[in-house]
Amino acid sequence: MAYRAHVIISGTAEETQQVKTAFVDTIDALGLAGEVDVQEAVDITVAPRGVEAIVYPDVTHYTDLTPADAQLIAEEHLYKGRPVEGLIFREREVEPLDTPATKEVRVVLRNVGKINPENIEEYIAEDGYAALGKALTEMTPDQVIAELKTSGLRGRGGAGFPAWLKWTFARQAPGDQKYVICNGDEGDPGAFMNRRVLEGDPHSVLEGMAIAAYVVGANQGYLYVRAEYPIAIHTLRIAIEQAREYGLLGQNIFGTDFSFDLEVRMGAGAFVCGEETALMQSVEGKRGQPRTRPPFPAVSGLFGKPTNINNVETYANVPQILLKGGEWFASMGTEKSKGTKTFAIAGKVKRTGLIEVPLGITVREIVYDVGGGVLNDKAFKAVQTGGPLGGCIPEKHLDLPVEYESLASVGSAMGSGGFIVMDEDTCMVDMARFFMEFAQEESCGKCVPCRVGTRRMLEILESICAGKGQPGDIERLEALGQYVKLGSLCGLGQGAPNPILSMIKHFREEYEAHIYDKKCPAKVCRALIEYKIDPETCIGCTRCARNCPVAAITGAPRQPHVIDPEICIRCGICAQVCPVDAVRVE
Amino acid sequence: MKSLEELQKIKERALERRKLAGEGARARVVVAMGTCGIAAGARDTMSAVLGELEKRNIADVIVTQTGCIGLCEYEPIVQVQIGEQDMVTYGRISPDRVATLIEKHVLGGNPVEEWQVGK
Lengths: 586, 119
Prior knowledge:
heterodimer; A: Rossmann fold; Ubiquitin-like (UB roll); 21 helices
């Protein structure tokens, strides 16, 4: 017998059976058994997305199906011929990139994506290790420092301390044993600039570290990388082995009396271990907790010895500076912030990914020219830089140049390079709650203001989101934020209140709307929104009532329906299934 | 490593090797294997490339890997270079696209325009 339609289902065994049963039962109940055929298949698409179904002959592709969805598809699509739009799989639309390198300038990333990271000769072909050779055979440590000073290179971990000064301190510190450390404990949510360098061009970091070791007088280095970066660790280990094989690590490098070796140390993924004193504790095998400074690592660092510690990106810049000269590097960027910076663009933006741009570029250029603009052409609201310890930059500061001082002046921070774009549908209270939750979980607990303060701030934010905000909450958050900042030893506690404080500074009215009007302007906080059906638009098709999981919708067929706000759980399914967009969020 | 001259020699050797003719190869296929690429399925793509070449018994195509080129959205990314021509970059090359890519571009010399990034 000829069928008029076929449904092909695939997915994991148990769920597929449930969905199939739902299809077959509904098809039987509708009397379509002889017209529609249901078949199972194995992996009908390349990337599995739950239980999937493709309806032929029109090739409608549904994904992530539940038995209830199957029933709906049978009733609507197979019986009435109306595909269920809300369940159809749509590949995320991405605009074609006509000029992928808009405004990008690659210094740190010059080899990444170009060479095979597992072959040292490919790095050498790109002038790799020539800077180390030049430093060892033609330059004194002081000349290297002078070149760095000319370049104006500042720490890329976020604080922006001049690299040449840090190296000078470690060089001048008395001690027979010194160390260099590379901080690869990249932990900001959504940021992976350093991972890309470590995976794609590990030798540039090794070379930078060897040059630093020569300058400060160290013979041993440690690369601290979190265990969540297995590929970076794998690549680094191969790179170290090959560098040893070629005599670029080890004894008497380039025939001089300079000897240097490296070891990879894995971090267990505690955010606080990105702080230099906690990181060194962790390398020593102790619990990662920060300590008071001074003494600074340059004086008393790893195992109590003078230690130079820089970020991955800082080290990766050094070989280029020695080869092309400090003046070349200083020709990029602004007066106080020289060179380029890598950023991970994420969030509500069309082209997410990793970029390297000259410092001084405006926020607008990054969002619109490099990032391609806001996703789905929604309105831009803000961008979060500096990760969970940074702050947000609102629309009025879109033309702000990206440099250490200017970002700090609006309450944000450069950080290591996270760049999260938020659109009009982002609730700033909810966002602050997310970042506070992160900081609260990652607080190591050593300093009371950080341990208890972040918890209290999180509780206040949670109550505001739940519609229980009290007058005075904003002021309490501001005061607590100041205490936590002032009373904490390390960057985690000092930075944790930043997102909230900057969001209150720029979006105070949104906080007030939550607390006083009990409204969430972005319509995100569930406790503060209400779903309503517009009686003028509603056609009484009963679809919302049938799909409501808590039976909060009542109404006779072909009559306007009503949602009972007391029962409604604000899941939004009614809005998704409504064929005429009669469901409004208020 | 004893001297700058030694480094220079390795550099020249590596640059020579980069020229396809020097290696006696007709093409180079590069698969981006950063974490982003692997998360998007680059390992399967790499296996598919190697499998397809083996199936067709082709030995003069160099298959190599590289890191993230910054277009994570388009992973798995595969680059193809024929002779001394410019490198062509393809996005979203899942294993099922590999056979076509090798057939049309690597062997046929005609880039598959609809999968190209930057076209």
